[in-house]
Amino acid sequence: MTSEEAWIDPHRIEAAGAWLFWSGAPDSRLTRSLEQLGQLEPVLAAEEGGGIRLVSGYKRLLACKELGRPVWVRFVVGDDFRKGRLYLHANLYQRPSGAGLVSCARFFQTQLKTEEVRGFLEEELRGFVSGKVLDQVEKWLFLEGFWVRALKKGRVPFEAGPLLASVCLDDRESFISFFESLSWSWNKARNFLTWTRESAKRDRVSTARLVQREGLLDILQKDLSPNDMQKHLLQRAYSIRYPVLAGLEQGFKALQDDLGKKSVWRILPEQHFEANGFTLQTRIRERTDLDRALEQLQDLRDEDSFDPIWQWQRDNLG
Predict the structure, then answer these.
(1) Quick check: 137 pLDDT over 70?
(2) Cα 18 to Cα 80, 106, 110, distances in angstroms
């Protein structure tokens, strides 16, 4: 790093470079601070090809442009790898998200051998990022560009990287349609990916063949809200993976709904229908709730309302 500094018109500085992997627009607090207190730290820049390129300080540069004031610059020298290291260390305070760490790792993947990136980041980020998180980041180095873009857009969760990296390219391509416009939580993404892959493996067909055969792609064409579309996809993937259990749950739900219309009581089956019997559940807030629940329970008994449930269990559970 050199010691040369200057105040420069911010429009002269080119704010572009692959090493600016955490750049973003300044917030109102930064702009207000610059306006009231001035620029407390210089931005870093390099003179290249007769011009000036930003190395670090993207938000401060944009804020100075917005305020119409010169920007304090400290000049540095070095190749792209050095620029990336300078940017990384100048911005560690940001505590980057998983997506941000992936952007960082993907940049250094262009400067190092892929197998060297994990060790390099472990040393550079020591004390800032855990080994477990770096393990997840490393898996993203082996994924195609679509998945990295989907991560940045919030379509696919950071935690899904290891799972996606564990499947073959053909399987990943089969899942692209489901992550192009829908944003998935980790729990939902894990269930959908796992149930679909396990079903394909059980049926000895490709994942592409399974999603086409079972109508999963057709759900994407329906006029549904994103939440409803995800709900339908998960229900369908679950029923494909666990057809017997899904059928039992659907049948029992009809009994639940019927009892719910008659009283405040709710029936719950034994876990995974592993045995006959059920649990009765209701909410009691005060004495009148208790009196009402007990009265309705007696009515249900007198009306033999539980007989259809016992009969269904005998017919379906043995």
Answers:
(1) yes
(2) 8, 10, 10
Q: Are 267 and 279 in contact (CB under 8 A)?
A: yes
Tokens found for residue 97: 């998200």
For the beta sheet containing 13-14, the strands, ordered from the edge strand earlier in sequence to the opposite edge, are 5-8, 71-75, 43-48, 51-56, 13-14
Measured in degrees and rounded to the nearest 5, phi and psi for residue 51 equal -125, -175
Name residues whose C-beta falls within 8 Å of residue 279's C-beta, 6 or more positions apart in sequence. Answer: 267, 268, 269, 270
Question: Per residue in 210-262, pLDDT tens?
Answer: 999 999 999 999 999 999 999 999 999 999 999 998 889 888 888 888 888 88
- Residue 271: pLDDT band (50, 70, 90) is confident
How far is residue 25's CA from residue 47's CA, in Å, rounded to a whole number? 23
Report residue 37 CA to chain centroid gap: 38
Q: Using alpha carbons only, what angle is made at residue 211 by residues 205 and 214, rounded to the nearest 5 degrees?
A: 95
Looking at residue 49, its amino acid is: G
CA distances from 188 to 67, 197, 233, 237, 243 (A): 44, 14, 10, 11, 19
Kind of pairing between the strands at 43-48 and 51-56: antiparallel
Of all helices (H) and strands (E), which one includes residue 237? helix 226-241
What whole-number distance in Å separates Cα of residue 121 and Cα of residue 134? 8
List, as one string, the DSSP characters of 125-140: TTTTS-HHHHHHHHHH
Q: Nearest to residue 21, comparing CAs of 75, 81, 102, 130?
A: 102
Neighbouring C-beta atoms of residue 8, cutoff 10 Å? 18
Q: Beta-carbon neighbour count of residue 214 at 10 Å?
A: 19
